[in-house]
What we know:
13 helices; CATH 2.40.50.140; Rossmann fold; alpha/beta; about 15% strand; single chain
Amino acid sequence: xxxxxxxxxxxxxxxxxxxxxxxxxxxxxxxxxxxxxxxxxxxxxxxxxxxxxxxxxxxxxxxxxxxxxxxxxxxxxxxxxxxxxxxxxxxxxxxxxxxxxxxxxxxxxxxxxxxxxxxxxxxxxxxxxxxxxxxxxxxxxxxxxxxxxxxxxxxxxxxxxxxxxxxxxxxxxxxxxxxxxxxxxxxxxxxxxxxxxxxxxxxxxxxxxxxxxxxxxxxxxxxxxxxxxxxxxxxxxxxxxxxxxxxxxxxxxxxxxxxxxxxxxxxxxxxxxxxxxxxxxxxxxxxxxxxxxxxxxxxxxxxxxxxxxxxxxxxxxxxxxxxxxxxxxxxxxxxx
Length: 336
């Protein structure tokens, strides 16, 4: 159910309630029209306040309430301390009390919201927040990493734990891509939806569709970084530029391409590989094969073995801007 549907229903109930009050207690309003307008205005005011505080979490609200309580208690103690007994004017006393309660309440709220959860143990001994001993591990997924699909394999293999957060605006972007007229984009979008459905049906993690949005931002990447920062979550992506933007804003991120690169097996000269020669090399007599991760292997004297499996021995490795190129020789059969 949409949040705005609930808001509109609440606004209608407030409007009807304002009219009902005007009929039941006509002395409070100047007729049904005014009662209806007051009810509508009251409902609109609450919806506006709801929209203003939508970025505030329940934890922050609890801290602010606790700070307000402490500030009010401090102001009451100062008020009853006889410090202002010399003031005889009632209006002056009222002003002093107003300033006291406003000042201490504000300071208490600010200190409580800035403080660490561990600070509460100084006030309430032996009571600790469960999330402090076991922090919640939130994982925000972007469009590229969902379409890629490797994240589903990592989750099913127990390599990733926590609660997966898929923002609503990412889901809408996937749906737009899946409805594209371009067959390639449409296939990518449908794959993304299938991968997301696969992640949702696994019992390894909990998947949460997050309704939060940032209307002031039009780019999905900017919204992702802001959401991950607001939730204190780790951002998973395949986009190099998005990762760098997240890093600049102190958001923890994981680039699956970098992860795959770091997990590539280390191949050293002298190792033997069993590869299929797939095409001719650049130089005469050379054949070219590929490892499972796409690394090119140039094999000398293998032109005649194209289309066949061959045992090759690594001779050297060449690091280039595009990756590593392995040079190998056909391994001679061992003498009996």
